[in-house]
Amino acid sequence: MQTPTDRNGRVTDRGERMLVAALLVLAVVPGIAGGSFDALSARAFLFAASSLGWVGATAILAARLIRIGEHVVGAGFLVLTIAETLLWVNGRDDADPAYLAGFAGGTMFYVVGLLMLAAPRAYPLVVRLLATGGAVAWAIQAGRFLTGAETLVTDPVAYAGYVLVSATFIAVAIVTIRDGRESRRQMPDARLSGAT
């Protein structure tokens, strides 16, 4: 089954676009909320919900963008899918000392994924700038980890990375919804064109 697209390659399937937007919101809201809880179980639950939204949205976006020929951006979303999955390899935040290694490994790949989103002109400038800012923050955090400096998931640089990635995802959700609306406006109305 082929996803309907307009002549510019925009996905016109409203259900897919709304699912992506909902998953991106799921990636952002519980992730931000989780940072405000001291209880490990509440924080872990919210961070897990955020990761599920993140993985679902980025996997769909990867497939969608590769399908319409935006291979670099699609591959960037695929890298982000893998990176977020790596965060859970070593258990929950603060529950396992090995968590920091998985966290550092996963977020290190955020840098590559975000730069792949930003490099081509598939998204508007604001998305690309937010993704670039997120990549810089995570590059600093990864560099600190790789050079042996003590790093925590609550470091200010990590917090800046989270904020910029969250803003990037919200901007991508808006663009995803908006592109569908613009596709409908640009598509000729079959009834007006005389088609039956």
Notes on the protein architecture:
It is a single chain. This protein is globular. Helix 1 (14-34) packs antiparallel against helix 2, helix 1 runs antiparallel to helix 6 (156-186) and helix 5 (125-146) packs antiparallel against helix 6 (156-186). The longest helix has 31 residues, at 156-186. The relative contact order is 0.14. It contains six helices and no strands. It has one domain (14-183). Mean pLDDT is 82; it is low at 181-196. The chain is mainly α and 196 residues long.
Q: Write down the domain tally.
A: 1
Shape: globular
Order of helices and strands: HHHHHH
Distance between the termini: 23 Å
Any descriptors?
196 residues; mainly alpha; disordered C terminus
Gist of the model:
The chain has 196 residues and is mainly α. The protein contains six helices and no strands. 70% of the residues lie in helices and 0% in strands.
